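Hi all, long-time lurker, first post. I run a small reading group and we've been trying to get comfortable going from sequence to structure in the token notation. Rather than ask abstract questions, I figured I'd post a concrete chain and ask someone more experienced to write out its structure so we can walk through it together at our next meeting. Sequence below, copied exactly:
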Amino acid sequence: MKIEVQIYQHEWPKLFEKEANNICAILGKEIMAIHHIGSTSVPGLKAKPVIDILPVVKDVHVIDQYNEAMADLGYKSLGENGIKGRRFFKKGENPRTHHVHIFQKDAQHEIVRHLAVRDYLKAHVNTARDYGVLKESLAQKFPNDIEGYCDGKDAYVRQLERNALEWCIQNEEIDYIS
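-- Answer (accepted) --
Happy to help. Here is the structure in token form:
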């Protein structure tokens, strides 16, 4: 699968809203909040055109009973997929269009980590620009190697997360439920 990094598309928030409504219709009262995360949630940031969605739910273990309904929307369930306490779904193969990262309300570290990075990039335009340039150069260097692409941005993302969490704490920026 070719790695494609695009300039920011104004349709991404609309695609999030549409899919969030579909997911909320399936998960119903299990959902406490639903967030657009990842690079497509940051205006002006270059990104792979994959919409990342973070629903916060009351009980993540109940989500497994919705796998068939999510499959009807085109999602494949991948269970925790490397992050304890998460339920991860992907939609589309080539191209991939959406990722859904479902966390239980008390998984604050994971929820806040995602929201802090999003909000930090929105507030720090130069950092977002630099991150976009890095992703674009890595996509050119590793056009068919997702592991190389991810490895190439790993150190940058780890530092970005540290900066974002520190900024978030200093500014009391995140209300992750609403």
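A couple of things your group might point at:
Residues 78 and 88 are 5 Å apart (CA to CA).
The chain has one domain: 12-171.
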